[in-house]
Write a structure and sequence with these properties.
The protein is of the alpha/beta class. The protein has an eight-stranded mixed β-sheet with strand order 1-2-4-3-5-6-7-8, with helices on both faces. Strand 3, helix 1 and strand 4 form a beta-alpha-beta unit. InterPro entries: AB_hydrolase_1, AB_hydrolase_fold, Epox_hydrolase-like.
Length: 307
C-alpha cells in the first residue's frame, strides 16, 4: 500500500482513522460490510495518480475508528454526522463521493441531508431506497424473507466470515439458517477468486478479530431507528448528479425488487439527476475489488465532468 498515508482525526465525538493519497479535488470513499478503507485500495492509487485526493475512512465501528459502546449510536444521522465533521476537518467544502454496500447507503443519506457538500456521487451495488412510511424496514424484510435472511440474523468466526461474504456469488437473497451458517460445513475449504488473496482476507480479519463485528452489525440493528429518525425526509429526492454501477450477479441487485426499481422509473423518480446506470456482466457484489480497473475508470469518466 505504498504512498497511502494514515492518520486519526477527531470527528463528532469519536476518533476516525483515515487513509489518503494524492493532491487535488477530494474523493470521499465509503466502504461497506464487512470491510474497511482497504476495500478501496485499488481506486485510491488509480484516482490519486489522475490528480485527485483520495480519502477513505474506516466508518464508525470499523477498523481503527472508534466503536461507541451504545448500540443506538449507529444511525444514519450519526454516521453522516461523522462524515460532515471529517469534511470540515480536512477543509473540503465540496467533494466527490463514492460508496459501496453500506457505504452506498450512507452516501445516499449524506446527499439527502447535505447535498451542498457533494459535487457528484458514484454509488456501487445498493440503489437508493425511499422510506416507506407504512412499514419499518425489519418488519418488511421479515415479511418477505423470514428470520433466516442475513440482515435478520447475525452470528459466526472471523477469517471464515470474511471469506464467506467476499466470495458469495449467488444472484439472490443471502439466507443464514440458524446453526447452519452459509449452508455448508464450516471446515469446508473456500477457494478464493483471483482478485482476492489470503493476504487481503487476513488484513480484513486482523481488524475484525481485534474489534469484533458488534460495531458493524449495529448498522443493521439500527435500521428501524434510522427509519424513525428520517421521517422528515419521507418522499424527499436525492438531488446531486449520480452514476450507479452494479454487477448482474450482485445479491442486492437480485433481491427485493431492485431490478424493477432501478430500470422501470422508480430510481429516477427519487434520484432525478441520475445520469448513468451501468450493469456489469458476470460481476458479483464486491465489484470494486473484482473489477478494480474498470470501476476506477467509471469513477473518473463521471466525476471529471464536474470539475
Amino acid at each position: 500500500m505504498e504512498g497511502i498515508e494514515h492518520r486519526t482525526i477527531k470527528v463528532n465525538g469519536i476518533n476516525m482513522h483515515v487513509a489518503e493519497k494524492g493532491q487535488g479535488p477530494v474523493i470521499l470513499f465509503l466502504h461497506g460490510f464487512p470491510e474497511l478503507w482497504y476495500t478501496w485500495r485499488h481506486q485510491i492509487h488509480a484516482l490519486a495518480s489522475l490528480g485527485y485526493r483520495a480519502v477513505a475512512p474506516d466508518l464508525r465501528g470499523y477498523g481503527d475508528t472508534d466503536a461507541p459502546a451504545d448500540p443506538s449510536s449507529y444511525t444514519y444521522l450519526h454516521v453522516v454526522g461523522d462524515l460532515v465533521a471529517l469534511l470540515d476537518a480536512i477543509a473540503a467544502d465540496q467533494v466527490f463521493v463514492v460508496g459501496h454496500d453500506w457505504g452506498a447507503i450512507i452516501a445516499w443519506y449524506l446527499c439527502l441531508f447535505r447535498p451542498d457538500r457533494v459535487k457528484a456521487l458514484v454509488n456501487l451495488s445498493v440503489a437508493f431506497s425511499p422510506r416507506n412510511p407504512q412499514r419499518k424496514p425489519l418488519e418488511a424484510l421479515r415479511a418477505v424473507y423470514g428470520d433466516d435472511y442475513y440482515i435478520c440474523r447475525f452470528q459466526i468466526g472471523t477469517a471464515r466470515v470474511m471469506k464467506e461474504f467476499l466470495t458469495y456469488r449467488h444472484p439472490g437473497p443471502l439466507f443464514l439458517p440458524k446453526g447452519e451458517g452459509f449452508g455448508h460445513p464450516l471446515d469446508d475449504p473456500i477457494a478464493l477468486p483471483s482478485w482476492l488473496s489470503e493476504d487481503d482476507v487476513n488484513y480484513y480479519a486482523s481488524f475484525f478479530e481485534k474489534k469484533g463485528f458488534t460495531g458493524s452489525i449495529n448498522y443493521y440493528r439500527n435500521l428501524d431507528r434510522s427509519w424513525e429518525l428520517t421521517a422528515p425526509w419521507t418522499g424527499a429526492q436525492v438531488k446531486v448528479p449520480v452514476k450507479f454501477i452494479v454487477g448482474d450477479q450482485d445479491l442486492v441487485y437480485n433481491s427485493l425488487g431492485a431490478k424493477d426499481f432501478i430500470h422501470k422509473g422508480g430510481f429516477k423518480k427519487y434520484v432525478p439527476f441520475l445520469q448513468e446506470v451501468v450493469v456489469m456482466e458476470g460481476v458479483a457484489h464486491f465489484i470494486n475489488q473484482e473489477r478494480p480497473n474498470e470501476i476506477s475508470k467509471h469513477i473518473h469518466d463521471f466525476i471529471k465532468k464536474f470539475q
